[in-house]
Amino acid sequence: MIGGGFWGWLRGLFGSPPQPPAVREAQSSLRVGWFEAMLAETEFVQRYPHYAGIVARMDPVATTIVDTMAVGLRRWNDPTSRLRLLVNTRYFSEHPELRSAILLHEIAHVLLGHLTDARFHAVGHPRLMELAMELTADEMVPEPLPARGLEMADFARFGVAPGQSTMERYRLLSAAYDRGDLRVEDWWSACMRDTHRPRRVGDACAAGLGDLLDARSDGA
To answer: Per-residue pLDDT tens for 163-175?
Structure first.
């Protein structure tokens, strides 16, 4: 057989198997180009069809203003806003094995309400909330993430443990800070998987979770 052998002939005869509606929405809403290639090469939507709706809500932008990725709201004060996904394609051409893992990390921020839930944005210690968000997003990723020197185990002595919510971790970190047992460190930001303040590094046209914390938190 030509054009893919028996299975190619069979697909030509009967057509491709129907995709779930969420998968069709994700695939049809994206421009043909580098992002579709990334999704196809990693088989991301096929492996994580339950995230297809979030992928469909994202407007991908290839840029070098972020180190790896960043996700943000296009309209910072609108929880229903579309999402801007900033991707450093140069980084992922050098580290293709990390594409799915870091995209899952961005999706976790969205699913957990880190961009939209007001409970996370009116806090006395925004940097501790950002740390709690980052640790919790990491926990949702089932694929290997790069080592970076900012792990949950580093904060175990303050009560941080697997299975906790973002807010639980924030309260534990805040209590340790108030007791004087924990200091907020500038180097934390450099060790996070993604860029949380894209508006600080260029005209990103999107508010990341760090931008939102700075804008909304009582302690900002």
So the answer is: 999 999 999 999 9
DSSP secondary structure letters along the chain: --SSHHHHHHHHHH-SPPPPHHHHHHHHHSPSSHHHHHHHHHTHHHH-GGGHHHHHTEEEEE-SSSSSEEEEESSTT-TT--EEEEE-HHHHHH-GGGHHHHHHHHHHHHHTTTTT-GGGTS-S-HHHHHHHHHHHHHHT--S-----S--GGGGGGGT--TT--HHHHHHHHHHHHHHTS----THHHHTSSS-S-HHHHS--SSEEHHHHHHHH-TT-
Closest of 29, 91, 83, 46 to residue 61, by C-alpha? 83
d(CA 208, CA 210): 5
- Between vectors from CA 101 to CA 151 and to CA 97, what angle results, nearest 5°? 110
| 83 DSSP β-pair partners | 58, 73
Q: Which sign does the torsion angle of CA 197, 29, 31, 33 carry? A: positive
Residues 41-65 have a mean pLDDT of 96
Residue-wise pLDDT for 77-99, tens only, equals 898 899 999 999 999 999 999 99
Q: What are phi and psi of 95, to 5 degrees?
A: -130, 65
